[in-house]
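Entry type: protein chain
Record version: 2
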Amino acid sequence: MRTVSWYSNLAKSTSRYCGRPKTFALAVGVIAVWIVTGPLFGFSDTWQLVINTGTTIVTFLMVFLIQNTQNRDTEAIQVKLDELIRATRGAHNALLDLEELEEDALDAFRRKYQVLAASARDELQRGADDTGTPEP
């Protein structure tokens, strides 16, 4: 059974809605109205404060909603990649869940694969294939 929190639903819905062209057009419209009303309010400090406060509040709240959505998407991608590694014959299961490792352990894996990539490029230049597993 799948339960989704109200916050996850709100974050997903808001991110989906805010990423649409109509929402962008609405934001441009609000700015245009604000600009047009400038002369009516004599470009006063209050007139400027309205747009500054409004955009600051919206930006502040959107950061949290977008971060929640990004975190969820990243976690889902990691799980999918882990499943591909797990299900692929010859894949190194030690690569599962790399995002949880400390930086130095992750760097060690990265260096190993940089050496493999450089070796594969050298082999390509000599006319060899770059497919298959590098281990004998």
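Comment: The two ends are 45 Å apart (CA to CA).
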